[in-house]
């Protein structure tokens, strides 16, 4: 095309004004002849373009440089390009018979039927890969030999392959080595299928061998087989790593890329001699590369049967440390920071072997910390991959809380080695079995290994109360939900699958007992190991275990299907008749926008009800005393309780539901909570539950805000972390809604009055060997105090930040304790200007510790200068800025975290939407960004602007963007219903305190 435009540019600039010119040979062209020649030339161009358009509109080429053209096929549903001598786009395939190639492009991009045909099953893969990293080519050569078994007679083989350029494809009968001729290869782009049509019928029960050589791309989109880089001593170093969950193994090798289609893998990786490789299994040998002089083959043992999404390999120049069969890998400069992961990893592994009562089946575990990694971590069997921040902990540089984070993520991924890897969900619909179980067991395991942290109490905050917010939306989804295309599959890796999944497993553990629960889990794993399963298989194993122990008389499937196959969760209203002693328990669905009864009256759950009274004060017995067995309500007469005593339901919030009481019971709870000498008679988890339930019942219109806010008064003398955190989160919503209003000052004064005691007790001084929970409590309390402009807090933070700026070598000497840096940095940048911001930016550019880099990324959004916020957002979309693509969300979240930054971030997203889409290349990332930049929208006109933007630009983002719209609508409704009432309460509270 470029060459075709050159004559026009010459004509435009260099031809004489009389439109005649002289050639080098002295031949003159008349004006008319020149015009005729130009017209003929133009017509020739048009004709050529038309021919090219018709014959190459759907280009299929297996040359790497043209792989991206696959996505341009828009003109026909099927285009056949014969493999012949005059076809410029044909593929050279070594086979006894040439075959044609086909590309299919669906006009409708919302294809949902993406399951592979069931006539073929892979048995084993022999995979050889040669990635070109050092050369800067960023491609890889692949050779694969797949043994397949035919399940039903067929003359077609369908498998997955994306962005792969095929060179040779051969098919043989395994029994005698006879080659089977291939007629054509078809690519169904929409379904990511490669389809081979065969000359003869493949016979059911027989095995065949499919050999393919191909070329792929080491992309920079953090999925499939991708490239990553880091700097060491100002030298850029490249590595190649994998991330295949959920549907990206097909980008690295041709495969049957569905979780139930397990097979054995034998992998060989070629790498340059100055690098190392690692994969799922142990290395069994090395050999020189046949062609590449400075390359060596690393050969790995055959794996156990596993899903394609769990295959993993990495080629790096990292260092490693080992403890017997357990090894950690990281950049050599960062390797000492992997010591804690290496310390706790084997302890977690040993505990889980005892917990599951099944030995870890692989010969080794490697954990590797990667500079670029989209997820937090990934459970690849035998090779766990982590974002650096999730695996590296450096004493004195990382905050104490980072230690708990590393422990939890390591435990989560090791828990998957059984639940997910040994036994895998048959389809992504039940991915919650993987993620919910690992999210629950990570707390169980860390609680067993690091007993002083009491992480099981924190579970209620992080998993139960946190996920309530998402599950209260009508646009939430079932735990077990039908999904089809890759975007739908990616969208369910959310708080429902992780948080709600873990919460209902914890609930089940409590109503079945530890003994029954653990026994059923072990039976399930043993029955299904090396295979796939559905949630009904787990329910069956747990039901059998319960019946053997005689501890539960219902079918677990009946109980749990009400939690996994319905969207949302219930609120249980407990209403007491104080004269007769009768107590009514009634359930309905809890929804955020509480406008119609039809929605929440259509769902009922099996609800385990535990409770205690003022006389009993038994907060340890969490087994249910009553069940709502799918009934709307029941009336109970045999509960012994005085009419002047309180009742508390859902002990330690083990059930996944909220509690609402009648007004008199609420008032009795307010009374005991406000009694400084008696409030601790209530378990701290239930104190947190009371605050969280009350504030969210008020938020949805089920409880008067006067009652809910009266409960928060007691926090002035609360000193425990869990109730305070619940209070800060609940009050934080009011903070967000009021932050742009005229009465934010009254809100700040009220919350500061609650904080004073906790601020004084915790202080700024961090003692040695301080518990993780206390460290987190200090961070929350002090950061909130500074956020609300507590004078002493601001002065102290500014002083510490200024002193750091004046240090001759601030990168080597930083006396601010790691636990309080987040607050100090943020306040210092917020109170300062360009100088303070630039100082933090320069520290970010040279920081090597992952925790420090992550912290600086967050606090750079604290500035109040709009031009700096715009600058920061712009930097996050530039490859050369130093901000990694994986951290783009963190930048937008940081900017949008204040009332000043949120409209700037939202406006930037709208103005740069196409640029943003092109840069991040991920629907899930776009959804996350849209979510964080719209949290504060609460006016009608803001909602209308958002709705218009979604309709025009991002209606294709699926369920998550609908959740953003619903959450914003709920904010608008909240302002209309509650703003005035809360302002009146705050004004009255201020009068009472000053009276």
Structure description:
With 995 residues, the chain is α+β, with helices and mostly antiparallel strands. The chain has 30 helices and 32 strands. It has an eight-stranded mixed sheet, with no helix packed on it. A five-stranded mixed sheet has the order 1-2-8-9-5, with no helix packed on it. The protein has a five-stranded mixed sheet with strand order 18-19-20-22-21.
Question: What's a concise summary of this model?
Answer:
The protein is of the alpha+beta class and 995 residues long. It is built from 30 helices and 32 strands. Belongs to the peptidase M1 family.
Treating each run of at least 4 consecutive H or I residues as one helix, how many helices?
30
Summed over residues and divided by their number, the pLDDT gives a mean of 87
What is the tally of beta strands? Answer: 32
Low-confidence stretches: 1-29, 46-98, 103-109
Query: Strand content of the residues, in percent?
Result: 15-25%
Q: Which structural class matches the secondary elements?
A: alpha+beta
Helicity range: 40-55%
Q: Main β-sheet, in a few words? A: 8 strands, mixed
| Shape descriptor | globular
Gyration radius, in Å? 32 Å
Please specify the SSE layout and strand pairing.
Blueprint: H1 2-14, H2 31-56, E1 78-81, E2 100-104, E3 120-132, E4 139-150, E5 154-160, E6 164-173, E7 179-180, E8 182-188, E9 193-202, E10 207-217, E11 224-232, E12 235-243, E13 264-272, E14 276-279, E15 283-288, E16 295-300, E17 313-316, E18 319-323, E19 326-330, H3 339-356, E20 365-370, E21 377-378, E22 383-387, H4 388-391, H5 400-416, E23 423-425, H6 431-449, H7 455-471, H8 486-491, H9 495-512, H10 514-528, E24 531-533, H11 535-549, H12 556-564, E25 570-576, E26 583-589, H13 597-601, E27 606-609, E28 611-613, E29 626-629, E30 633-636, E31 647-649, E32 658-661, H14 663-673, H15 684-699, H16 705-712, H17 721-738, H18 744-762, H19 772-787, H20 791-805, H21 821-831, H22 834-846, H23 850-859, H24 866-875, H25 888-895, H26 901-911, H27 913-920, H28 923-932, H29 940-953, H30 959-994
Parallel strand pairs: 2-8, 3-13, 19-20, 20-22, 23-24, 25-32
Antiparallel strand pairs: 1-2, 3-4, 4-10, 5-9, 6-7, 6-10, 8-9, 11-12, 13-16, 14-17, 15-16, 18-19, 21-22, 25-26, 26-30, 27-29, 28-31
Helix pairs in contact: 3-5, 3-6, 5-6, 5-19, 6-7, 6-9, 7-9, 7-15, 9-10, 10-11, 15-16, 15-17, 17-18, 17-19, 18-19, 18-30, 20-21, 21-23, 22-23, 23-25, 24-26, 25-28, 29-30
């Amino acid at each position: 095309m470029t060459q075709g435009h050159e004559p026009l540019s010459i004509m435009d600039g260099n031809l004489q004004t009389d439109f005649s010119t002289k050639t080098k040979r002295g031949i003159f062209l008349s004006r008319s002849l020149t015009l005729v020649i130009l017209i003929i030339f133009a017509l020739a161009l048009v004709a050529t373009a038309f021919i090219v358009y018709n014959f190459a509109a759907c280009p299929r080429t297996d040359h790497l440089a043209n792989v991206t053209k696959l996505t341009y096929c828009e003109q026909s549903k099927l285009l056949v390009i014969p493999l012949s001598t005059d076809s410029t786009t044909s593929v050279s395939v070594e086979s006894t018979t040439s075959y044609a190639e086909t590309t299919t492009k669906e006009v409708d991009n919302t294809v949902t039927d993406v399951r592979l045909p069931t006539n073929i099953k892979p048995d084993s893969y022999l995979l050889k890969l040669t990635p070109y990293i050092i050369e800067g080519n960023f491609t890889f050569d692949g050779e694969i030999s797949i043994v397949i078994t035919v399940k039903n007679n067929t003359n077609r083989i369908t498998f997955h392959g994306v962005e792969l350029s095929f060179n040779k494809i051969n098919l043989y009968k395994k029994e005698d080595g006879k080659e089977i001729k291939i007629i054509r290869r078809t690519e169904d782009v929409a379904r990511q299928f490669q389809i081979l049509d065969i000359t003869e019928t493949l016979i059911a029960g027989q095995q065949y061998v499919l050999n393919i050589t191909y070329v792929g791309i080491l992309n920079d989109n953090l999925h499939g087989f991708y490239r990553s880089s880091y700097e060491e001593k100002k030298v850029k170093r490249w590595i190649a790593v994998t991330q295949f969950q959920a549907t990206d193994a097909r980008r690295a090798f041709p495969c049957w890329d569905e979780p139930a289609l397990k097979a054995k893998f034998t992998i060989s990786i070629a790498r340059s001699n100055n690098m190392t490789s690692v994969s799922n299994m142990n290395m069994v040998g090395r050999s020189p590369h046949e062609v590449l002089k400075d390359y060596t083959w690393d050969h790995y043992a055959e794996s156990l049967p596993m899903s394609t999404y769990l295959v993993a390999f990495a080629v790096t120049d990292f260092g490693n440390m080992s403890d017997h069969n357990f090894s950690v890998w990281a950049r050599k400069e960062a390797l000492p920071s992997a010591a804690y992961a290496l310390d706790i990893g084997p302890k977690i592994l040993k505990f889980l072997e005892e917990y599951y009562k099944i030995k870890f089946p692989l010969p080794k575990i490697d954990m590797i910390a990667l500079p670029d990694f989209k997820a937090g971590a990934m459970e690849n069997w035998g090779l766990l991959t982590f974002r650096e921040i999730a695996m590296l902990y450096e004493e004195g540089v990382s905050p104490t809380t980072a230690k708990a984070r590393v422990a939890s993520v390591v435990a989560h991924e090791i828990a998957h080695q059984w639940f997910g890897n040994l036994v895998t969900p048959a389809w992504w619909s039940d991915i919650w079995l993987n993620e919910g179980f690992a999210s629950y067991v990570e707390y169980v395991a860390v609680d067993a290994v690091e007993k002083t942290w009491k992480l099981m109490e924190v579970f209620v905050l992080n998993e139960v109360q946190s996920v309530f917010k998402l599950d209260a939306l009508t646009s939430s989804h079932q735990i077990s939900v039908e999904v089809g295309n890759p975007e739908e599959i990616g969208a369910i890796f959310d708080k429902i699958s992780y948080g709600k999944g873990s919460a209902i497993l914890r609930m089940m553990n409590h109503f079945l007992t530890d003994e029954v629960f653990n026994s059923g889990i072990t039976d399930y794993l043993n029955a299904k190991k090396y295979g796939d399963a559905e949630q009904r298989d787990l329910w069956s194993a747990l039901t059998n275990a319960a019946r053997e122990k005689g501890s539960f008389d219902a079918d677990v499937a009946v109980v749990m299907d009400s939690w996994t196959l319905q969207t949302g969760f219930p609120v249980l209203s407990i209403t007491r008749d104080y004269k007769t002693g009768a107590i009514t328990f009634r359930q309905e669905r809890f929804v955020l926008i509480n406008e119609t009864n039809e929605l929440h009256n259509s769902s009922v759950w099996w609800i385990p009800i535990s409770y205690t009274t003022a006389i009993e004060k038994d907060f340890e017995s969490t087994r249910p005393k009553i069940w709502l067995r799918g009934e709307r309500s029941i009336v109970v007469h045999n509960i012994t309780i005085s009419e002047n005593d309180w009742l508390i339901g859902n002990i330690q919030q083990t059930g996944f539901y909220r509690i609402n009481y009648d007004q008199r019971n609420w008032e009795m709870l307010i009374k005991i909570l406000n009694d400084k000498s008696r409030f601790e008679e209530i378990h701290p988890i239930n104190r947190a539950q009371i605050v969280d339930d009350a504030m969210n019942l008020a938020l949805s219109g089920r409880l008067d805000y006067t009652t809910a806010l009266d409960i928060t008064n007691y926090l002035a003398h609360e000193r425990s972390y869990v109730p305070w955190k619940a209070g800060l989160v609940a009050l934080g919503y009011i903070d967000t809604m009021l932050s742009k209003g005229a009465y934010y000052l009254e809100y700040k004064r009220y919350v500061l009055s609650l904080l004073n005691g906790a601020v004084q007790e915790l202080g700024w001084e961090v003692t040695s060997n301080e518990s993780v929970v206390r460290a987190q409590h200090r961070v929350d309390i002090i950061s909130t105090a500074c956020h609300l402009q507590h004078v002493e807090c601001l002065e102290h933070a500014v002083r510490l930040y200024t002193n750091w700026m004046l240090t001759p070598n601030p990168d080597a000497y930083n006396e601010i304790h790691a636990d309080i840096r987040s607050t100090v940095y943020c306040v210092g940048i917020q109170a300062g200007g360009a100088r303070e911001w630039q100082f933090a930016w320069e520290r970010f550019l040279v920081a090597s510790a992952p925790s420090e880099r992550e912290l600086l990324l967050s606090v750079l959004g604290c500035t109040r200068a709009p031009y700096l916020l715009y600058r920061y957002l712009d930097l996050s979309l530039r490859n050369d800025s130093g901000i990694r693509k994986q951290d783009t969300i963190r930048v937008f979240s940081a900017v949008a975290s204040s009332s000043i930054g949120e409209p700037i971030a939202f406006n930037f997203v709208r103005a740069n939407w196409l640029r943003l889409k092109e840069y991040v290349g991920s629907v899930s990332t776009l959804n996350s960004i849209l979510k964080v930049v719209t949290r504060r929208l609460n006016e009608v006109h803001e909602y209308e602007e958002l709705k218009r933007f979604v309709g025009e630009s991002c209606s294709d983002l699926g369920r998550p963007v609908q959740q953003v719209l619903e959450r914003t609508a709920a904010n608008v409704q909240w302002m209309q219903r509650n703003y005035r009432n809360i302002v009146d309460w705050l004004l009255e509270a201020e009068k009472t305190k000053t009276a």
